[in-house]
Write a structure and sequence with these properties.
The chain is an all-alpha fold and 415 residues long. The protein has one domain: MFS general substrate transporter like domains (Growth Hormone, Chain: A). The protein is 77% helix and 0% strand. The chain contains 18 helices and no strands. The model has no long low-confidence stretch (mean pLDDT 87).
Length: 415
């Protein structure tokens, strides 16, 4: 059975809803880098030290990544079972409600659990929104649409950075930010109630005669190579982003201190501005240069610019913000690339599951990697530049791994 396309109005509704969901997803991802030290100072009280603050930042990040990994796989699989739209709405409600509850946390342990729960929704949104948009838009528009979607994720981080510049996050005033992060629950209800379903998913369901077990199917011989490749090419930028580049915000916060209360937000704003442009450009680059060559060049460039960030400049130096901007641009080229590439690896009936598994499996390694870097951070005496430089080398793996990946440049999503 062929899939009847949606009307133009319905396709734009899908695109706008998914874009907004990813914008709010970006808010959730950018929240703890700007709030973590203030949260820890508030909840730890006299027990707070700068090293303890960095260690707790690593724990909060690891909890979010672990939740996102589990959510991406389970809610991605749910999207192949009950529909992209319903799974997307559930994901939005999860990350919104549990983020808002963070504003009531009384201990670090409570916040740690809530960040894990937020991660479930954060992880579940990506595969379902990307699969939904990829299937609702024609192939000729996909690089543009995929780039716009991933730009939305980093636009959320940019909006958050500007918000906290005007209303600074401090140990005495941070709970409002978590309550604000609960606002997207309204969007979740609207998605569940009104958003149309993917016609290609509906067609694929009508053709399936046996019970669906998409997660198991991904590890059968026909799809095993694609699954493993998807995991590898997703894991490298995911681990690199959270084990290396995300340390720049608490680094800036620790150096600027109370003398420059808006500096950390300004730094995140420069990074997010570069990331908005980079995540949009990544899909275009993949379309122009092909999937393999573009990924290889992005990997090499990200190694160099991340090393430059941690070795050739430092917070409060005039060159720091421009280098942060270029690091944000380069490191997020990966994610526009992934939004285009991952749906091409998998057939429609396992597309959300496959994309979710590939994109989020790296978060298991990221959670472990961030905890390890938190340990190394303590061992190295709280040296942000050293830990960031060591982790930057993760990106170099992409230069080699990509040549085992299939080239999907000419592949259609009709099946």
């Amino acid at each position: 059975m062929s899939a009847a396309p949606l009307s133009p109005q319905a396709r734009y509704a899908v695109l706008i809803a998914a874009f907004l969901a990813l914008v709010f997803d970006g808010v959730e991802l950018g929240l703890m880098p700007v709030a973590s030290l203030s949260v820890s100072q508030s909840l730890l009280g006299d027990a707070f030290t700068p090293t303890a603050g960095g260690d707790w930042f690593a724990r909060f990040t690891a909890a979010l990544m672990l939740g996102a990994a589990i959510g991406g796989i389970t809610l991605g699989s749910l999207g192949d079972r009950i529909g992209r739209t319903r799974a997307m709405g559930i994901s939005i409600l999860m990350y919104s409600i549990f983020a808002a509850l963070g504003g009531f946390a009384k201990t670090q342990e409570q916040m740690l659990l809530l960040r894990f729960m937020v991660g479930l929704g954060v992880g579940g949104l990506w595969p379902n929104s990307i699969a939904l948009v990829s299937e609702c838009w024609p192939g000729a528009s996909r690089p543009l649409v995929s780039g716009a979607m991933m730009a939305g994720l980093n636009l959320g981080i940019l909006i958050l950075s500007q918000l906290v510049r005007f209303w600074p996050v401090t140990p005495d005033s941070w709970r409002w930010l978590f309550h604000f992060a609960g606002a997207p629950a309204v969007l979740g209800f609207l998605v569940l109630t009104f958003l149309p379903e993917s016609p290609r998913w509906l067609a694929s369901r009508s053709l399936k005669k046996s019970p669906v077990a998409p997660l198991w199917e991904l590890f059968q011989p026909a799809l095993l190579r694609f699954t493993l490749v998807g995991i590898l090419v997703s894991a490298i930028p995911m681990i690199g982003a959270w084990s290396a580049s995300k340390w720049m915000i608490p680094w800036a916060d620790s150096v600027a201190g109370t003398g420059h209360p808006g500096y950390k937000a300004a730094v995140q704003g420069w990074w997010a501005l570069g990331a908005v442009l980079g995540s949009f450009a990544g899909a275009q680059l993949a379309g122009w240069l092909g999937r393999r060559l573009s990924y290889c060049l992005i990997s090499a460039a990200t190694v160099l610019i991340t090393l430059a960030l941690f070795q050739l400049t430092e917070p409060l130096a005039p060159s720091f913000k421009p280098v942060v901007f270029f690091q944000g641009f380069t490191a997020t080229l990966f994610f526009g690339w992934l939004a285009l590439y991952l749906p091409e690896l998998f057939p429609a009936h396992v597309r959300a599951t496959g994309s979710g598994l590939a994109y989020n499996s790296g978060r298991f390694a990221t959670a472990a990697g961030v905890l390890l870097t938190g340990f190394l951070f303590t061992v190295l005496g709280g040296n942000y530049a050293t830990i960031g430089s060591l982790c930057a080398l993760i990106y170099a793996l992409g230069i080699v791994v990509i040549w085992w990946a299939p080239d999907t440049t000419e592949k259609s999503l009709d099946k």
